[in-house]
Amino acid sequence: MWTDAVDDALRGWLAEAGTGGVLAVVALGGYARRELCPRSDVDLLLLHDGWGRRDLESLVRALCYPLWDAGLSIGHAVRTPREALRAAGERLETATALTDRRLVAGDRGLLDDLAGRCRRWLRRAGADLLVAVDGDGGGAGDGAGMLEPDLKSGAGGLRHLHALRWASAVVLGEPGLDPLVGARYLGAAERAELARAADTLLAARCALHLVARGDRLRLDLQDEVAARLGLPGGDELLRRVGLAMRTVAHVHGRTWPRLVADARGGRRRRRPAPEPLDDGITLVDGLVEVDPVRTLAADPSLGLRAVAAAAARATHLGRATTTALRRQVGDLGRVGWDDAARAALLATLRAGDDARAALADADHTGLLGAHLPEWPSVRGHPQRNPFHRYDLDTHAAQTCAQLARIADGALDAAHGELWDELDEPDTLVLGAWLHDVGKAWPGDHSAAGGQVAQRWVRHMGFEHARAERVARLVRLHLLLPDAATGIDLDDEGELRAVAHQVGDSETLDGLYLLSLADARATGPAAWSAWKDGLLAELHARLRRLLTGTAAQPRERRPAAVVEAARRLARDPAAVEALLERAPARYLRAADPEQLVAHADLLRPLPGAGQLRGQVRPGPAAGTETLSLVAGDRRGLIADCAGVLAARGVTVLDARAFTGADGVALDWFVVRPGERPDWPRILHDLRGAAAGRLDVAAMVDRREQRRDARQLTLPGPLPVTVRFDAGARSARVEVRAPDAPGLLYRLARSLADSGLDVTGARVATLGPEVRDVFQVRLPDPPPDAGLVEARLRAAVATHGPSRDRARLRS
């Protein structure tokens, strides 16, 4: 529709303008392919046979100005056929655009002249063109299955289809996908699948352009785009788009290397001799092929063994094998398991990044669904949240790849040694692959996933004990990340409760490695050097409880901390003075450097309303530690958190202690951003401590001007508040959307309710905070419903933001 309207307009304006010589109006790129979307560029080439400059300027005004006035984005060039070819040799974008061309109006002879020149040029320089396309993203991508896919340039996007068309022009002399079928690069069924995938992606891109600029299908736009297409919601849209993109990515990934090789060496190039890989399985011209006389009916392991062989060589299955396996899977419906099939699956999952293409083949051919009847529920299942990057089964494969990197020592040698010491590493591999499978079933995904994992592992034919252990890993896969950011690591009782859930050191080590792999596969919002440090510390302390020995890092003991502080201090007497007034739990949390910092700040003692601070490098890259001493009062920690939020400083961790003399000994670990103005921040903190600063107004101003590039949400996040009161204390839990000043408002609400915050553990995952506060109750205690109402009111005054990580006080 868009294309026809532009064609008709151009023909009409050309007739009105008249011509004084030979001219051809040529559509290029997406306009030539009749794939215009509402915000697509309309690429025009005005071919002429040597017109004068003034006539050409008049022609451009007649043809292009009306399109610009209509709000269209026009890309135009005015050239002779010779000039057009010279420009193609200078710019990749021009060369690929010329490959798809269509006469809109004017003299066909000029276009035929250009077409002949292009064919001769592609025979000479086509291989270099494809190599350039490959380096520009047309031959590679970040992997299909993205939750916010780029419909044009992402892996499996429309550009991959265009690249196959360009390769056909280079290798076969004719652009398009149909010539690739005749030349046996593509199968007929694959060509039909690519056509359906292209229709899905083009429709989604058109609907997206009606909603927003750009080609990235953002989470916050998906429901509206789905409505434009008449789909029930964003989940259905994302699943359809995701499966279409993985179809394109699979076919492109297998076909592209061979096309590039044939462009370089010719279709009659000398191919390497076939290389036997396994029984009935051979490497042929870089792809894995199965002996055509072998079948899944006679050998159920055949398909998975071929996939494992492809993973070992970091390659794809060949076209003939893909076609044969898909046909056999369709005929059989279900394929059983044997020892060889189980071994092949494990070998594939252990292959790490090299298995990416092979796992895509296992999915594309239907092998996974044939071996696991419930696989279609998992395949392409959307996880529409801002911190995950991939759909469900792609995330599972990415987790296995990350686990393989960790096992190889990519993080450090200690993690590789931990892997080597596992009694059953294959149990962990299966647990990593299945850890999130429960998201495709209702209810808590860890609990549901444990049941599904146990059922699947038994269906594969593994023994009952292994199925139980895999299910346990799946049920507990969030235990360590939640505990690392949600309990007081210095509280022996809380540590023992976690150790009791874990049960044994084998499970602990597996959960630790799985947590590291899962976070990295999830995306940047789920992991950082800081969170790695928390996990390592938790793992070490749980290891000590379960085995009597510490793993990493070395456990701190108060006596050792004190001795180290005495050696570091410039004034040992100041350290002794600190020790006289510090509460006992302070020494279980502070390291020697922290003791020395507080000792220096306490000379002399701060009075009421006074605050002193000091900044030093933090425990992880990109962090700093802010140490504070002040005359304590209710709400002090809230005001300090508010000042930091107002100045754009992200709080990662904090501790607060009050000595018998009423002096607060606090510290914050922060991510300060670029060039923090610490003198100004410390000035504001002193003002807040003295009551001279309107912290609430500062936080409000900060939130009003916060970065507009905030994390996108598919819908509102629920707010939950729990108030569990004991005799003299209470535990308050809050889950809510994040914002820079949320920590300040929650802590202030508790203080306004008459509650003293004695501890807080605050975690952030993407746009969601999960905060746990320990508070001391007054006598009589406040009404829990009133406290909850105040906390909900604090949450209701903000929206989502990036600016938060973790606090523990």
Give a nutshell description of this structure.
The chain is an alpha+beta fold and 809 residues long.
Architecture blueprint of SSEs:
Layout: H1 2-17, E1 23-28, H2 29-32, E2 41-48, H3 53-69, E3 73-79, H4 81-90, H5 92-99, E4 101-106, H6 108-138, H7 158-172, H8 178-182, H9 188-211, H10 219-228, H11 234-265, E5 275-278, E6 281-284, E7 287-290, H12 302-312, H13 319-332, H14 339-350, H15 356-364, H16 367-371, H17 375-378, H18 392-407, H19 413-420, H20 425-434, H21 445-460, H22 464-475, H23 479-486, H24 492-502, H25 505-522, H26 529-547, H27 558-568, H28 572-581, H29 584-589, H30 592-601, E8 611-617, E9 624-631, H31 636-646, E10 650-658, E11 663-671, H32 678-690, H33 695-704, E12 720-725, E13 729-737, H34 742-752, E14 756-765, E15 768-776, H35 784-796, E16 806-808
Parallel strand pairs: 2-3
Antiparallel strand pairs: 1-2, 1-4, 5-6, 6-7, 8-9, 9-11, 10-11, 12-13, 13-15, 14-15, 14-16
Helix pairs in contact: 1-3, 4-5, 4-6, 5-6, 6-7, 6-11, 7-11, 9-10, 9-11, 10-11, 11-15, 12-14, 12-15, 18-20, 18-25, 20-22, 20-25, 21-22, 23-26, 24-26, 25-26, 27-30, 28-30, 31-32, 31-33, 31-34, 34-35
